[in-house]
Design brief:
CATH superfamily of one domain: Vaccinia Virus protein VP39
Order of helices and strands: HHHEEHEHEHEEHEEE
Structural class: alpha/beta
CATH class of one domain: Alpha Beta
Strand order of the largest sheet: 5-4-3-6-7-8-9
Distance between the termini: 42 Å
Largest sheet: 7 strands, mixed
Shape: globular
CATH topology of one domain: Rossmann fold
Length: 231
């Protein structure tokens, strides 16, 4: 199984991986614990091996496997591991799927998906974050991810339709463009609502309409439109 670039180098050099124990503990205590209830074995396996610390600024890497969101600059965060696991599991990723992610951030969520699906397309409106994420994904040899800097509200029309769409920033309403780019039978996992009143929904497209299921209350950074660029 894929181990990540750093893990491979450490094994070749015979050096211990200082984060491996923390990764396993994260999965056991934060994800697979009965009160958390993540049961998809593929999701758990990938999150146990993906080097989450590689997606963080150097000065906070020691906190990479803690049960919290972490800042990545430009007012953005890397989501709590549990939220990443919930969103990934509820998306029901299949090996043949093509998935669109809105809100690349650090690239960690895209990296998790890259080990579970055929192809990932991810959009980040903050160009320096998009560039950094693309470099990290390349360093980890995750070649089935395409990164674009742009307005995620508009989706990625030329690559549509998608089997799954995952949104890691919160619009006040589900963007119609994303609904249009979701294939029939596809799934979308998305936080919706104003700051302080956001809920995560799982949407399924059936006969051209959306079936909606509430997952849980969440707190995400708001979706930023191109007409309102970040300061």
């Amino acid at each position: 199984m894929w181990l990540g670039a750093n893990s491979r180098l450490q094994r070749w050099a015979g050096e211990p991986d200082p984060f491996s124990g923390l990764q396993r503990r994260m999965v056991q205590e934060q994800l697979a614990a009965p009160e958390r209830g993540i049961t998809d074995s593929r999701v758990l396996a990938v999150m146990a091996l993906m080097p989450r610390h590689e997606f963080l600024p150097a000065h906070i890497r020691a906190s990479a496997y803690e049960d919290c969101a972490l800042p990545i600059g430009y007012g953005q965060t890397l989501s709590q591991p549990y939220i990443v696991a919930v969103m990934t599991e509820r998306l029901e990723p299949q090996p043949s799927d093509r998935v669109l992610e809105i809100g690349t951030g650090s690239g960690y969520q895209a990296a998790i998906l890259a080990r579970l699906v055929q192809e990932v397309f991810t959009i980040e409106i903050i160009a320096p974050l998009a560039n950094r994420a693309a470099a990290t994904l390349k360093d980890l040899a995750l070649t089935n991810v395409q990164v674009r800097s742009g307005d995620g509200y508009r989706g990625w029309l030329e690559a549509a339709p998608f089997d799954g769409i995952i949104v890691t920033c919160a619009p006040e309403q589900v963007p119609p463009s994303l609904v249009d780019q979701l294939r029939e039978g596809g799934r979308m996992i998305i936080p919706v609502g104003e700051a302080g009143n956001q809920h995560l929904f799982l949407l399924r497209k059936q006969h051209g309409k959306l079936e909606q299921r509430l997952v849980l209350a969440v707190r995400f950074v708001p979706m930023t439109r191109a007409a309102q660029p970040p300061q």
